[in-house]
Protein backbone atom coordinates (compact mmCIF):
# COMPACT_ATOMS: atom_id res chain seq x y z
CA UNK A 1 0.00 0.00 0.00
CA UNK A 2 0.83 3.64 -0.19
CA UNK A 3 0.89 5.12 3.31
CA UNK A 4 0.02 8.73 4.11
CA UNK A 5 0.83 10.14 7.53
CA UNK A 6 1.04 13.63 9.09
CA UNK A 7 4.61 14.72 9.84
CA UNK A 8 3.78 15.51 13.49
CA UNK A 9 1.30 14.65 16.24
CA UNK A 10 -1.45 16.94 14.97
CA UNK A 11 -4.83 15.37 14.02
CA UNK A 12 -5.24 14.37 10.41
CA UNK A 13 -7.90 17.00 9.69
CA UNK A 14 -5.60 19.76 10.99
CA UNK A 15 -2.53 18.77 9.00
CA UNK A 16 -1.71 20.63 5.79
CA UNK A 17 1.05 18.17 4.86
CA UNK A 18 1.15 14.40 4.55
CA UNK A 19 4.23 12.24 4.11
CA UNK A 20 4.10 9.48 1.50
CA UNK A 21 5.64 6.12 2.36
CA UNK A 22 5.12 2.44 1.58
CA UNK A 23 3.63 -0.16 3.90
CA UNK A 24 1.79 -3.45 4.06
CA UNK A 25 2.26 -6.48 6.29
CA UNK A 26 3.91 -8.92 3.90
CA UNK A 27 5.99 -6.25 2.16
CA UNK A 28 7.12 -4.94 5.56
CA UNK A 29 8.38 -8.43 6.44
CA UNK A 30 10.15 -8.77 3.09
CA UNK A 31 11.84 -5.38 3.51
CA UNK A 32 12.94 -6.08 7.09
CA UNK A 33 14.31 -9.49 6.05
CA UNK A 34 16.34 -7.75 3.35
CA UNK A 35 17.56 -5.30 5.98
CA UNK A 36 18.74 -8.27 8.05
CA UNK A 37 20.78 -9.60 5.13
CA UNK A 38 18.41 -12.11 3.51
CA UNK A 39 17.13 -12.36 -0.05
CA UNK A 40 13.42 -11.63 -0.21
CA UNK A 41 10.74 -11.06 -2.81
CA UNK A 42 7.27 -9.59 -2.56
CA UNK A 43 4.37 -10.93 -4.61
CA UNK A 44 1.41 -8.61 -4.92
CA UNK A 45 -0.57 -6.30 -7.16
CA UNK A 46 -0.43 -2.54 -7.52
CA UNK A 47 -2.32 -0.12 -9.69
CA UNK A 48 -0.91 1.49 -12.80
CA UNK A 49 -0.70 4.77 -10.95
CA UNK A 50 1.84 6.97 -9.13
CA UNK A 51 1.19 5.21 -5.80
CA UNK A 52 1.93 1.83 -7.36
CA UNK A 53 5.12 3.10 -8.92
CA UNK A 54 6.18 4.53 -5.55
CA UNK A 55 5.54 1.19 -3.82
CA UNK A 56 7.71 -0.66 -6.34
CA UNK A 57 10.47 1.95 -6.19
CA UNK A 58 10.55 1.94 -2.38
CA UNK A 59 10.64 -1.84 -2.08
CA UNK A 60 13.33 -2.14 -4.73
CA UNK A 61 15.43 0.48 -2.91
CA UNK A 62 15.04 -1.58 0.29
CA UNK A 63 16.45 -4.65 -1.44
CA UNK A 64 13.20 -6.53 -2.10
CA UNK A 65 12.74 -8.26 -5.45
CA UNK A 66 9.56 -7.06 -7.16
CA UNK A 67 9.96 -8.70 -10.58
CA UNK A 68 6.83 -10.85 -10.16
CA UNK A 69 4.55 -8.04 -8.92
CA UNK A 70 1.53 -7.55 -11.17
CA UNK A 71 0.37 -4.10 -12.29
CA UNK A 72 -3.39 -3.73 -12.66
CA UNK A 73 -4.45 -1.26 -15.37
CA UNK A 74 -7.99 -0.90 -13.99
CA UNK A 75 -7.77 -0.97 -10.18
CA UNK A 76 -5.95 1.52 -7.93
CA UNK A 77 -3.14 0.89 -5.48
CA UNK A 78 -4.44 0.42 -1.95
CA UNK A 79 -4.11 3.35 0.43
CA UNK A 80 -3.61 3.48 4.19
CA UNK A 81 -3.78 6.73 6.15
CA UNK A 82 -2.43 7.06 9.70
CA UNK A 83 -4.12 9.43 12.13
CA UNK A 84 -2.38 10.37 15.40
CA UNK A 85 -4.94 10.20 18.21
CA UNK A 86 -3.99 10.74 21.84
CA UNK A 87 -0.52 9.26 21.51
CA UNK A 88 -1.78 6.29 19.48
CA UNK A 89 -2.34 5.73 15.76
CA UNK A 90 -5.78 5.22 14.22
CA UNK A 91 -5.69 3.52 10.80
CA UNK A 92 -7.93 4.46 7.89
CA UNK A 93 -7.95 1.88 5.09
CA UNK A 94 -8.92 2.56 1.48
CA UNK A 95 -8.49 -0.90 0.01
CA UNK A 96 -11.92 -1.93 -1.28
CA UNK A 97 -11.63 -2.57 -5.00
CA UNK A 98 -7.86 -2.11 -4.92
CA UNK A 99 -5.44 -3.93 -7.16
CA UNK A 100 -4.37 -6.11 -4.21
CA UNK A 101 -7.97 -7.18 -3.58
CA UNK A 102 -7.92 -8.89 -7.00
CA UNK A 103 -5.17 -11.32 -5.95
CA UNK A 104 -6.08 -14.99 -6.26
CA UNK A 105 -7.68 -17.39 -6.30
CA UNK A 106 -4.63 -19.16 -7.81
CA UNK A 107 -1.19 -18.53 -6.26
CA UNK A 108 0.89 -16.06 -8.28
CA UNK A 109 4.35 -16.91 -9.62
CA UNK A 110 4.23 -20.60 -8.55
CA UNK A 111 7.80 -21.27 -9.74
CA UNK A 112 9.13 -18.51 -7.48
CA UNK A 113 7.07 -19.81 -4.57
CA UNK A 114 8.32 -23.37 -5.05
CA UNK A 115 11.92 -22.16 -5.03
CA UNK A 116 11.53 -20.23 -1.77
CA UNK A 117 12.54 -21.62 1.62
CA UNK A 118 9.75 -19.69 3.35
CA UNK A 119 6.48 -18.22 2.09
CA UNK A 120 4.98 -15.69 4.51
CA UNK A 121 1.35 -14.52 4.40
CA UNK A 122 -0.95 -12.75 6.85
CA UNK A 123 -4.59 -12.47 7.84
CA UNK A 124 -4.69 -8.97 6.38
CA UNK A 125 -4.60 -10.40 2.88
CA UNK A 126 -7.45 -12.74 3.80
CA UNK A 127 -9.58 -9.72 4.73
CA UNK A 128 -9.32 -8.00 1.36
CA UNK A 129 -11.70 -10.05 -0.82
CA UNK A 130 -13.19 -13.44 -1.57
CA UNK A 131 -10.47 -14.19 -4.12
CA UNK A 132 -7.79 -13.32 -1.55
CA UNK A 133 -9.41 -15.70 0.95
CA UNK A 134 -9.41 -18.45 -1.66
CA UNK A 135 -5.76 -17.70 -2.38
CA UNK A 136 -4.76 -18.21 1.26
CA UNK A 137 -6.83 -21.37 1.53
CA UNK A 138 -5.12 -22.63 -1.62
CA UNK A 139 -1.66 -21.90 -0.21
CA UNK A 140 -2.13 -23.02 3.39
CA UNK A 141 -4.96 -25.53 3.50
CA UNK A 142 -4.68 -27.16 0.08
CA UNK A 143 -0.87 -26.86 -0.16
CA UNK A 144 -1.08 -25.80 -3.80
CA UNK A 145 2.66 -25.01 -3.82
CA UNK A 146 4.57 -27.82 -2.08
CA UNK A 147 8.04 -27.28 -0.71
CA UNK A 148 8.50 -24.06 1.27
CA UNK A 149 7.77 -23.62 4.95
CA UNK A 150 4.44 -21.78 5.16
CA UNK A 151 4.46 -18.95 7.69
CA UNK A 152 1.20 -17.26 8.75
CA UNK A 153 0.85 -14.15 10.90
CA UNK A 154 -2.76 -13.87 12.13
CA UNK A 155 -2.54 -10.06 12.00
CA UNK A 156 -6.21 -9.41 12.70
CA UNK A 157 -7.44 -5.98 11.60
CA UNK A 158 -11.08 -5.67 12.58
CA UNK A 159 -11.69 -2.65 10.33
CA UNK A 160 -10.95 -4.74 7.24
CA UNK A 161 -13.44 -7.48 8.17
CA UNK A 162 -16.59 -5.39 8.59
CA UNK A 163 -18.09 -6.37 5.23
CA UNK A 164 -16.67 -9.90 4.99
CA UNK A 165 -19.31 -12.64 4.53
CA UNK A 166 -17.64 -15.01 7.01
CA UNK A 167 -16.41 -14.35 10.55
CA UNK A 168 -12.75 -13.44 10.86
CA UNK A 169 -12.36 -15.75 13.86
CA UNK A 170 -13.38 -18.88 11.95
CA UNK A 171 -11.30 -18.29 8.83
CA UNK A 172 -8.18 -17.09 10.66
CA UNK A 173 -8.31 -20.16 12.91
CA UNK A 174 -8.64 -22.45 9.89
CA UNK A 175 -5.65 -20.81 8.19
CA UNK A 176 -3.53 -20.82 11.35
CA UNK A 177 -4.14 -24.50 11.97
CA UNK A 178 -3.00 -25.29 8.41
CA UNK A 179 0.29 -23.33 8.50
CA UNK A 180 3.77 -24.62 9.38
CA UNK A 181 4.54 -21.56 11.50
CA UNK A 182 1.97 -19.36 13.22
CA UNK A 183 2.68 -15.95 14.73
CA UNK A 184 -0.12 -14.50 16.83
CA UNK A 185 -0.50 -11.76 19.42
CA UNK A 186 -1.90 -12.75 22.79
CA UNK A 187 -4.31 -9.81 22.58
CA UNK A 188 -5.66 -10.75 19.16
CA UNK A 189 -6.08 -14.40 20.17
CA UNK A 190 -8.15 -13.19 23.12
CA UNK A 191 -10.27 -10.93 20.90
CA UNK A 192 -10.76 -13.53 18.17
CA UNK A 193 -11.09 -16.79 20.08
CA UNK A 194 -11.43 -15.89 23.75
CA UNK A 195 -8.12 -17.64 24.41
CA UNK A 196 -5.64 -15.61 26.45
CA UNK A 197 -2.85 -17.80 27.82
CA UNK A 198 0.01 -18.89 25.53
CA UNK A 199 -0.39 -22.58 26.45
CA UNK A 200 -4.11 -22.41 25.64
CA UNK A 201 -3.43 -20.66 22.34
CA UNK A 202 -0.96 -23.41 21.45
CA UNK A 203 -3.55 -26.06 22.30
CA UNK A 204 -6.23 -24.29 20.24
CA UNK A 205 -4.03 -24.20 17.14
CA UNK A 206 -3.61 -27.95 17.24
CA UNK A 207 -1.04 -29.66 15.08
CA UNK A 208 0.77 -26.59 13.72
CA UNK A 209 4.39 -27.60 14.44
CA UNK A 210 5.58 -24.07 15.32
CA UNK A 211 3.64 -21.41 17.21
CA UNK A 212 4.95 -18.06 18.44
CA UNK A 213 2.74 -16.10 20.83
CA UNK A 214 3.67 -12.43 21.15
CA UNK A 215 2.72 -10.57 24.32
CA UNK A 216 3.53 -6.92 23.56
CA UNK A 217 6.17 -5.55 25.95
CA UNK A 218 6.15 -8.71 28.09
CA UNK A 219 7.86 -11.07 25.67
CA UNK A 220 7.26 -13.94 23.27
CA UNK A 221 6.72 -17.66 23.81
CA UNK A 222 7.42 -20.24 21.12
CA UNK A 223 6.38 -23.87 20.86
CA UNK A 224 8.45 -26.07 18.56
CA UNK A 225 9.12 -29.81 18.22
CA UNK A 226 12.88 -29.30 18.66
CA UNK A 227 13.00 -26.91 21.64
CA UNK A 228 9.64 -27.38 23.33
CA UNK A 229 8.45 -24.20 25.06
CA UNK A 230 10.80 -21.20 25.04
CA UNK A 231 10.10 -17.74 26.47
CA UNK A 232 12.22 -14.64 25.84
CA UNK A 233 11.28 -11.33 27.50
CA UNK A 234 11.03 -8.22 25.38
CA UNK A 235 13.84 -5.68 25.79
CA UNK A 236 12.95 -2.28 27.15
CA UNK A 237 12.24 0.40 24.57
CA UNK A 238 10.86 3.95 24.45
CA UNK A 239 8.01 3.50 21.97
CA UNK A 240 7.52 6.11 19.27
CA UNK A 241 4.82 4.18 17.36
CA UNK A 242 3.79 0.52 17.53
CA UNK A 243 2.74 0.20 13.87
CA UNK A 244 4.90 -2.34 12.03
CA UNK A 245 6.46 -3.89 15.14
CA UNK A 246 4.71 -7.24 14.60
CA UNK A 247 5.92 -7.41 11.01
CA UNK A 248 9.47 -6.60 12.09
CA UNK A 249 9.29 -9.30 14.78
CA UNK A 250 8.18 -11.82 12.16
CA UNK A 251 11.10 -10.83 9.95
CA UNK A 252 13.59 -11.20 12.80
CA UNK A 253 12.22 -14.59 13.80
CA UNK A 254 12.24 -15.80 10.20
CA UNK A 255 15.81 -14.56 9.76
CA UNK A 256 16.85 -16.63 12.78
CA UNK A 257 15.04 -19.64 11.37
CA UNK A 258 16.70 -19.25 7.96
CA UNK A 259 20.07 -19.04 9.73
CA UNK A 260 19.34 -22.26 11.66
CA UNK A 261 19.82 -20.46 14.97
CA UNK A 262 18.58 -21.88 18.28
CA UNK A 263 15.00 -21.05 19.21
CA UNK A 264 15.94 -18.49 21.86
CA UNK A 265 18.09 -16.65 19.29
CA UNK A 266 15.19 -16.56 16.84
CA UNK A 267 12.99 -14.94 19.46
CA UNK A 268 15.74 -12.52 20.45
CA UNK A 269 16.28 -11.46 16.84
CA UNK A 270 12.52 -11.00 16.51
CA UNK A 271 12.50 -8.73 19.56
CA UNK A 272 15.47 -6.70 18.32
CA UNK A 273 13.85 -6.21 14.90
CA UNK A 274 10.58 -5.18 16.57
CA UNK A 275 12.50 -2.76 18.77
CA UNK A 276 13.82 -1.02 15.66
CA UNK A 277 10.24 -0.62 14.40
CA UNK A 278 8.98 0.73 17.72
CA UNK A 279 11.43 3.64 17.61
CA UNK A 280 10.27 5.08 14.26
CA UNK A 281 7.06 6.23 12.60
CA UNK A 282 8.02 4.37 9.41
CA UNK A 283 6.28 1.05 8.78
CA UNK A 284 9.62 -0.37 7.64
CA UNK A 285 12.42 0.42 10.11
CA UNK A 286 16.10 0.69 9.31
CA UNK A 287 17.59 -2.44 10.83
CA UNK A 288 20.70 -2.09 12.99
CA UNK A 289 23.78 -3.69 11.40
CA UNK A 290 24.18 -7.37 12.13
CA UNK A 291 27.49 -6.86 13.92
CA UNK A 292 25.51 -4.97 16.57
CA UNK A 293 22.66 -7.49 16.77
CA UNK A 294 24.34 -10.89 16.56
CA UNK A 295 26.38 -10.67 19.80
CA UNK A 296 23.08 -10.43 21.72
CA UNK A 297 21.59 -13.61 20.28
CA UNK A 298 23.58 -16.06 22.40
CA UNK A 299 21.90 -17.27 25.63
CA UNK A 300 24.81 -16.06 27.77
CA UNK A 301 24.81 -12.54 26.29
CA UNK A 302 23.55 -9.50 28.18
CA UNK A 303 19.94 -9.16 27.05
CA UNK A 304 19.25 -6.07 29.17
CA UNK A 305 21.82 -4.04 27.20
CA UNK A 306 20.78 -5.23 23.74
CA UNK A 307 20.78 -2.40 21.17
Automatic annotation (TrEMBL):
<dbReference type="InterPro" id="IPR029056">
    <property type="entry name" value="Ribokinase-like"/>
</dbReference>
<dbReference type="GO" id="GO:0016301">
    <property type="term" value="F:kinase activity"/>
</dbReference>
<dbReference type="GO" id="GO:0005524">
    <property type="term" value="F:ATP binding"/>
</dbReference>
<feature type="region of interest" description="Disordered">
    <location>
        <begin position="280"/>
        <end position="307"/>
    </location>
</feature>
<keyword id="KW-0808">Transferase</keyword>
<dbReference type="InterPro" id="IPR050306">
    <property type="entry name" value="PfkB_Carbo_kinase"/>
</dbReference>
<comment type="similarity">
    <text>Belongs to the carbohydrate kinase PfkB family.</text>
</comment>
<keyword id="KW-0547">Nucleotide-binding</keyword>
<dbReference type="Pfam" id="PF00294">
    <property type="entry name" value="PfkB"/>
</dbReference>
<feature type="domain" description="Carbohydrate kinase PfkB">
    <location>
        <begin position="11"/>
        <end position="281"/>
    </location>
</feature>
<keyword id="KW-0418">Kinase</keyword>
<keyword id="KW-0067">ATP-binding</keyword>
<protein>
    <submittedName>
        <fullName>Sugar kinase</fullName>
    </submittedName>
</protein>
<dbReference type="InterPro" id="IPR011611">
    <property type="entry name" value="PfkB_dom"/>
</dbReference>
Amino acid sequence: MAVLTPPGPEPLHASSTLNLRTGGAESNVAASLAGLGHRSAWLGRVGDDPFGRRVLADLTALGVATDAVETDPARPTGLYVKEPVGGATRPHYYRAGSAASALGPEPPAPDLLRAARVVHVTGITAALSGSCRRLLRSLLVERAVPGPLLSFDVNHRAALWRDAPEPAADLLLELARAADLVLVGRDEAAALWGTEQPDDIRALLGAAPRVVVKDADIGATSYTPEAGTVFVPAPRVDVVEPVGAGDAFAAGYLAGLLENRPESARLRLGHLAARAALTTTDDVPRMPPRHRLDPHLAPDSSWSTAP
